Every structure is written in C-alpha cells, then in structure tokens.
Amino acid sequence: MSRLLSTFLIAASLLSGTVAAAGAAPGGAPAGVPGDLGPPQGEPIHAVLGIPPNVPPPLNRKTPAKVIVDLEVVEKEMPISEGVTYTYWTFGGTVPGSFIRVRQGDTVEFHLKNAPDNKMPHNIDLHGVTGPGGGAASSFTAPGHESQFTFKALNAGIYVYHCATAPVGMHIANGMYGLILVEPPEGLPKVDHEYYVMQGDFYTTGKYREKGHQPFDMDKAIDEHPTYVLFNGREGALTGDNALTAKTGETVRLFVGNGGPNLVSSFHVIGEIFDKVYYEGGKHAQENVQTTLIPSGGAMMAEFHVDVPGSYVLVDHSIFRAFNKGAMGILKVDGPENKAIYSGKEVDSVYLGDRAGPNLHAVSVAAKANAAGTLSKDDQVKAGQQLFAGTCSVCHQANGEGLPNVFPPLAKSDYLAKQSKEQLIAIPLHGRTGKVTVNGKDYDSVMPPMSQLTDDEVANILTYVLNSWGNPGGQISAEEVSKVRAQPAPAAAGH
Ligand SMILES: [Cu+2]
Predict the structure, then answer these.
(1) 487 C-alpha to center of ligand 1: Å?
(2) According to the UniProt entry, where is the signal peptide (predicted)?
C-alpha cells in the first residue's frame, strides 16, 4: 500500500466522525436534499482564486459558508507558441480560467463580469452546479455588464466550467474553460504539491508554429482537426522555466481537466504511475494507473509520490498531439538519485528534443525580424540551429556528422554542395529514399518527409546547414521554399 493511500484511509476514518457531527449540528441538514449540509454559517467569504498551474490552498473549514466568487471575462491576445499569437477569450485572464475552490454544502454567490472593452457576450456553465444550464441560464452577460446567481454546491468532486454562449464550440476553442473543486466536507488528504493543468484543442488558419497572429479556423474546428493540442493554453506553458516542480519523497496531486472542445485526452505522465486516480472527477479512485481518459468537458484528480529525480513528461498519449501539436508539460523532480529504483539518466533530450528547454528564443527573434522585413542571414542561422536540434539532429547528429552506414553526414557533404536550391529544399519537404553517395560512401535508406515544418522553418534550417561545418554557405528564403512546396513531389527522389 502506498504511503499516500494509508494517509488517506487514516484521514477518512478520522474525519467521518466530523461529518456525522456536522450533520447533527443545530439547524443542520434539511431532510430530502442529499449533499446539503445546512445553511451557511459565519460571515461571507471571498473565494481565493488559483492562477494556473497554481491551486488555491485547502479550505480547512468545518462548516458550510457563503462564498463570493468574482470572475471577470477578458478577451486578449497572448502567445500560443514561440512567435505565434492568438486572441483568447478567458475567465480571469488565463487559459485555463481561475481555479475555484469551495466546500460541499457551501452557498456560492457567483459574480460574472464581462470586461467593458470585450467584443462578445459570455456566460458560464459550471458542471458542479445543480440547476438549469449549470448557471448558464442565469449568467448571459454583455460587455461592460455583470451577472449574479447563487447555487449550493451539493456534490463533492472536481468539475469543469466553461462558457456556453453561441457558438459554444468557438467560445470553448478560444480558451473559455476552467475547473471548480468542491472539497468533500472532511477536505482532501494533505499532499506536498497541488497543480492545475487543463488540456484544450486549438484551431488556427495557419499551420502548427506558423509565425505571426493566427485567427480561429471554424472549418478546422468543425472537422475536429486541431492545429494545437495544449496544456494550459500555450505551447511551453509547463516546460522549461515553467515546469511544475517537486522534490524526491514528496506527494503530488494533479487536478487535470479537459476543456476540449473536441478531443478526448489519454492523459499520461512519462515515467510515473498514479497511485490513485479519481477518474471522471468523482468520488471513487482507481489505483496504479498509467494512462487515464479525460473526456471533453471532464476532469480527474491524480495522486502520486515522486521517488526518483528527473523530468517527468506530461502528455496526451495520443502521441502525435504531444510531439507535433504541443500537448506536453514537465514535472521536474529534484533530489538525490535512488539507484535502487532507477539507474539514472535524463529523459529530457530522449523525448523532448527542442522542447526540453525554453530555447526557441532565436526562432521568435527571426520571426519578428521577418515580419519587420529586416531578417538577416545571421537571424536565420541562429533560428535554424535551434530548429535543427529539434528536427534533424536526432538522425544527422548535432554536429552534422551523421552515423556511419545509417545517416549520411551533412557536414562537408559533397552531395549537398552539388544540389540546386530547389533540390535541396525538396529534401526536407518530400524526404529522400534510394541510393545516395555522400563523401564516397553509399547510403540506401529512407528520410521521412518533414512537410509539417513551415516555409520559414525549412528556410532557416537549410540556411543554418549551408553555413555550418565547412559547407559552402548561401541563404534560402521562405518564398523559395513556398515555391518548391507548391510543385508536385518528385516521383522518387534519388532514382
Ligand atoms: Cu464566451
């Protein structure tokens, strides 16, 4: 039995006494409404809201209270990826929205404000509310207005809230979702860290990582064909300097929701096993879980202890979403090695490539320079170096030397030096198969097409390759790549 589990059982048995006592209190639970713990007691309390990935502190309250929640809808432009911006609609200025924490039996007075310079009307449907529309029916709010409604939180659990104003899918796709935790009367077992993570799928007119401002694409959304699948609304929200943290020997509780609007998440943490998962956000826990399903508009709570230092990667295990659409986060665990459990060696570079650190800075510098019309060869080389590390180095190696008999060298490659610009651009776009002789050695293998790269990414990578390791130099522009992309792929490159 895990330490966490035994702690929980002790806590539960101690606290079941408290619950019974509360039920027997004067003016206690009226008959007939399960979950009602009686009228609110004491002065009204203003809810402390959690800014993701943070969760407000445990309530440690023994009686039901009146809790006032103030939540403001803010429409604003924010980065969705390095050098890419998106106009989000938010609850509280962040995606996901502010984390709300109340106790079962609380009477919640909800104030929804729609900021005056917003363009759209909004409302809120909280899945923890018993009542029509989960509050949506009472909270339609025009820009510059405020709505108020009150509900009693009858069921303990972790619940999604979201905007439900037409077109509902669009409001959700723009980031209008968050979580509300209704603590059981006895509270949750104590842990060292609680974190707030929410998955969402995003639909932009441009490709994944295509630079500049990207508008919402309704057709892609209807086709359920996301450009990005993200934790906490932005690529890199939980990696590099933004990684979640813990120390060896500590316990962690993750509240993970899925805003959708379309995808179901196969939520997994690479290298960890969840001691407990309160699946679907409800009362029962499954133990020793590897991957748990989180439906769109659903949530779960996972508890585990960390024993071995290193980086644990949060992913949607529908794995293209992790590596090609952004659904990745990191829990960084510090502490002494525990070789009896794991021999050691970092997982970062194995799994993450360029996403391991916040190292795409040069890429956004190049994107900005490109937008301003001042892009220099040097900008391209620097951006290309970072992109090469994430895309090409796994085979051709960081120093361009390749691997004998398997991956040909790009460093001082006589084959590369002979190619026209068009031929060179076609290699990453269409891949390469068949026999090729590089520096006197024959290779007969397959390089897969990397057509997911944008025009400027291909241009920057090739400019970097041309200007590195003694190669002949030169410069390739995004326009040149775009022209080659528009041509039909050669029937079989290399034959
Ligand atoms: Cu809305």
Answers:
(1) 42
(2) 1-24
CA of 140 relative to ligand 1 center, distance in Å: 9
Residues in the chain: 495
The Å distance, Cα 235 to ligand 1 centre, comes to 22
The predicted structure's pLDDT at residue 23: 38
Tokens 């939540």, residue? 71
| 397-406 average pLDDT score | 90
422 CA → ligand 1 middle, Å: 47
Report the separation in Å between the CA atom of 74 and the middle of ligand 1, taken as the mean of its atom positions: 10
Structure tokens at 170: 């669009």
| Residues 191-204: tens digit of each pLDDT | 999 999 999 999 99
Mean pLDDT over each residue of the chain, to the nearest integer? 89
322 alpha carbon – ligand 1 mean position (Å)? 27
Cα of 164 vs centre of ligand 1, distance in Å, is: 6
Expressed in angstroms and rounded, the spacing between residue 317 Cα and the centre of ligand 1 is 29
Which residues, in sequence order, are CB contacts of 100 under 8 Å at separation 6+?
47, 49, 50, 56, 69, 71, 161, 178, 179, 180, 181
Angle between helices 455-466 and 478-486 (to 10 degrees): 120
Residue 6 in this model has a pLDDT that exceeds 50: no
CA 122 – ligand 1 centroid, Å: 4
83 or 104, greater pLDDT: 104
210 contacts: CB under 8 Å, gap ≥ 6: 84, 204, 454
Query: How much distance in Å is there from the Cα of 53 to the middle of ligand 1?
Result: 22
Query: 444: exposed, middle or buried (C-beta count within 10 Å: 0-12, 13-18, 19+)?
Result: exposed
pLDDT band at residue 469, thresholds of 50, 70 and 90?
very high
Task: Determine the distance separating the centroid of ligand 1 and the alpha carbon of 423, expressed in angstroms.
Answer: 48
Amino acid at 162: H
Extract the tokens encoding 255.
């509240």
Percent of the chain residues past pLDDT 90, beyond the cut: 75
- What confidence tier does 63 reach under pLDDT thresholds 50, 70, 90? very high
Query: Cα-atom radius of gyration of the chain, to the nearest Å?
Result: 26
Residue 34's identity, in one-letter code, is P
Assign 216 to helix, strand or coil.
strand
Residue 318's identity, in one-letter code, is S
